[in-house]
Amino acid sequence: MAWSTSVEGPSSQDKEDTSSLQTSADPESQCRDRVDKNVTDLVRIMILRYRLRKPITKAQMLQVVSKRGKRQFPVIFKKACKCLEVICGIDVKEVVPAPHSYVLVNSLDLTYDEMLGDHENMPKNGFLIIILGMIFLEGNCAQEEAIWEFLNMMGVYAGREHFIYGEPRKLLTRTWVQENYLEYQQVLHSDPPRYQFRWGPRAHAETSKLQVLEFLFKIKGIDHISFSCWYEEALRDEQERAQARIGPVGHATAKFMAQPLLPQLKNEKKSSRCVRKGTHISK
């Protein structure tokens, strides 16, 4: 620390001052550590209930929270819910009329988590959607170094085990590639070899650009105006998918279907500029 880097070394008085500074700083640090540990423990028990397809009560949640943490339960609960939403794609909804009882539901259409056994691994759908979103924002093809730069900002590192994601590089380059959610390919003629990610066929089948973008908007608390260029592309993609599902239609029907989207596209296009490369979602 800054106060212990003197060239001559700290005197006994300096040591006492350092000790008192560390002691005075400890309570705040310890409080953050307690909250983080309680959030982690709460997330684990909530995921277990999700796996068992059972609701969870406030009383059950308080059982895994420390005695000191009980006073901060509203903060801990809010953080745990946000973690489940962002990382796992799980929404926590209060049961009505039962007070302080909650159900945990998959908020995304991806089926990857449903394939896992009740006690296998942690749900990762939210994380997968974030990766798909990153690829979309990078122009539907993201360089591997851009992906890791972004993940490092989230505190996720290649080769470092994560309590929810496991080993991230294996997850991205092997597991999700084998499950056809991602495509991982060498950049043509790159020397030394560089790699890039694209959506796999299963990602295209189970979700859409619009769903991915709306999830990112939700977890970041922003509206589509900030990403109007990508929003327009996502809307066009949604229209094309709908058209493909229902087959050929007459000109009048197509015009009717497109009508609700036209005002948004026209209004936003005037002021939107799209810079694809180097676009990142901040932590």
UniProtKB/TrEMBL annotation:
Residues 1-12 have a biased composition (Polar residues). InterPro entries: MAGE (IPR037445), MAGE_WH1 (IPR041898), MAGE_WH2 (IPR041899), MHD_dom (IPR002190). Gene3D superfamilies: MAGE homology domain, winged helix WH1 motif, MAGE homology domain, winged helix WH2 motif. Residues 35-234 form the MAGE domain. Pfam families: MAGE (PF01454). SMART domains: MAGE (SM01373). Residues 1-32 are annotated as: Disordered. GO terms for biological process: negative regulation of transcription by RNA polymerase II. One of its GO terms (cellular component) is nucleus. PROSITE patterns: MAGE (PS50838). Signal peptide: none annotated. It comes from the Eukaryota. PANTHER family: MELANOMA-ASSOCIATED ANTIGEN C2 (PTHR11736:SF84), MELANOMA-ASSOCIATED ANTIGEN MAGE ANTIGEN (PTHR11736). This is MAGE domain-containing protein. The lineage of its organism: Eukaryota, Metazoa, Chordata, Craniata, Vertebrata.
